[in-house]
Structure formats: structure tokens, C-alpha cells
Amino acid sequence: MKNLLLLFITILIIACGPQERVSKQAFDDVQRNNEVKRITEVAILQEAMVWGDSITQEAQVQLTAQLQQAIASNGPVGAIDFCKVNALPILQFVESKYAVTLRRASVQPRNPADTPNAEELPLLEAYAYNAENNISSDPSIQKIEQGEVLLYTKPILLTNALCLSCHGDPKKDIAAETSAKLKELYPQDLATGYAEGDLRGMWALRLPKKEVVKRL
Ligand code: HEC
Fold first, then answer.
1. Ligand 1 atom at minimal distance to the Cα of residue 84
2. Pocket of ligand 1 contains residue 52 by CB under 6 Å
3. Which alpha helices (DSSP H) does the chain contain, by range?
4. 3-class DSSP assignment, residue 160
5. Given the CA of residue 70, which atom of ligand 1 is nearest to it?
6. Model pLDDT for residues 153-199, shown as the tens digit of each residue
7. Cα-based distances in Å from 164 to 45, 57, 171, 197
8. Distance 41 CA to ligand 1 centre (A)
């Protein structure tokens, strides 16, 4: 019986000894791999942030410049047609230039196509919470589609008094003629009643991970 116990302990030591060394080695390997992966992952997220800033900036500049031009030549009423016809093609141009998906989302959309989807809504709500509590919001990156796509979002604020001529108070900021045109083109319009500085919506930019990796 005593011998049997001794044998059992010996087997245990033999069985556990080398195994422990192997698993330590395996553990180290995993740690090393993780470290390599972690660095790459951080670099990818950082690059997605830089690229996202640059693409949304480009789209914003294009939209604002062309909108200002349209207002200067046709007034706000004429510029509504410009937005209806041209906002989407400007975004589509940027999309095909970089092989990404770019859209704007708002909880009070003018164009119903800009209603936030399930991925976008919680982010918009977080930006809205910050705006209401005077906390500034930075852009953010979320991994979606099993990490194959990086969703970059950035708040869009009504920083410009110009925006109010089509998104402000219908009694004060928006001309009657402009209101009539908006009603005609956007019967379900929810995008009025804003004040300067309010959160109007956000950019939602989907960056395929492989496109981000190409840039590293
Ligand atoms: C001349 C009128 C006009 C002005 C000025 C204007 N917008 Fe708009 N805005 C529109 C129209 C029209 C749409 C809907 C475009 C479409 O059909 O895709 C829109 C849509 C948007 C959207 C997309 C979400 C939604 O509601 O569908 C955002 C965000 C937005 N505008 C922000 C701004 C900001 C910021 C400014 C000031 C820099 C601004 N707009 C100035 C007319 C205007």
C-alpha cells in the first residue's frame, strides 16, 4: 500500500514536472505572440483614427465649401436643392476614392436615410449626452463585423451660423420660403429647431481593416 502510494507520487512528479515546463514555454510563446499582436492592433487603431480624421475632414470641407457657394449664388432656398442633389454624390466620391463607406447619421434626420442604425445609435447617444453636459467629445473607433471593419465616428456640431438658415428655429432663423421648400422636399423633416453649438449628428465612416493595414 505504502509502495503503491510512493509509485503514485512518483508518477505524479514525472507527469507534472516536464508538463509544467512545457506549459511555461507555451505560456511564454502565447505572451510573445500577444505582445506582437497587441502592438499591431494598437498601430491599426491609431492609423484608423488618423485616416478617419483626414477623410471626414475632406468630406466636411467639400460639403461646406460647395454649400457656401450654392448659397452665395442661389440663396438658402436654391441651396436646398444643392444639398438634396449633391450631398450624397460628394460623399460617394470620397467613398470610392478610398474604398470606404461614409455617411452622416442623426437622431433628428432631414433625410430619413440618415437615421442611425443599431451600431451607430449608442455612439450618437453618447455624443448627445456629452453635448448636453458640456463635455467635449473626441472621435471614436469601434471594431465591428468581427474586427474586419473599424467604425470611425465623429460628432457634427452646428458651429456655423450659416447652418441655422436651414436647421435653426423655423420662426426665427429659417425664412418662410426656405421652410416651404424644406416641407415640399422633406415631408418628414426633423432637422430644425437647432441652436448654434448643438450636436447635429455624426460622421459614420466604415474603414475595412485591410485598407487600414495597407497604410502601415
Ligand atoms: C441650404 C440649406 C442648408 C444649410 C445652410 C445646411 N444644411 Fe444641413 N442639410 C440640408 C439638407 C437639404 C439636408 C438633407 C440632405 C440629403 O437629402 O441628403 C441636410 C442634411 C444635413 C445632415 C445629415 C443628417 C440629416 O439630417 O439628414 C447634417 C449632419 C447636416 N445637414 C449638417 C449641417 C451643418 C453642420 C450645416 C452648417 C455647416 C448645415 N447642415 C447647413 C440643408 C442645409
1. 17
2. no
3. 2-98, 121-132, 164-167, 176-185, 209-214
4. coil
5. 1
6. 999 999 888 899 999 999 999 999 999 999 999 999 999 999 999 99
7. 35, 21, 11, 10
8. 35
Instruction: Return phi, psi of residue 156, to 5°.
Output: -110, 115
pTM assigned to the model: 0.83
Q: Which residues contact 59 (CB under 8 A, 6 or more apart)?
A: 90, 91, 94, 102, 203
Q: Is the CB of 201 under 6 A from ligand 1?
A: yes
The label of the residue with cell 447635429 reads: 200
CA distance 198 to 28: 51
Provide the grid cell at 213.
Answer: 493595414
Q: What is the residue type of 60?
A: Q
Q: What is the pLDDT of residues 189-212, one digit of tens each?
A: 999 999 999 999 999 999 999 999
Element (H, E) at 156: strand 149-157
Read off the C-alpha cell for 102.
461614409
Count of residues making up the chain: 216
> Taking a C-beta distance cutoff of 8 angstroms, is the pair 109, 121 a contact?
no
3-state secondary structure of 216: coil
Alpha carbons 125 and 169: distance in angstroms, whole number: 22
Q: Which of 134, 139, 135, 127 is nearest to 201 (CA)?
A: 127
CA distances from 156 to 33, 138, 215 (A): 39, 11, 26
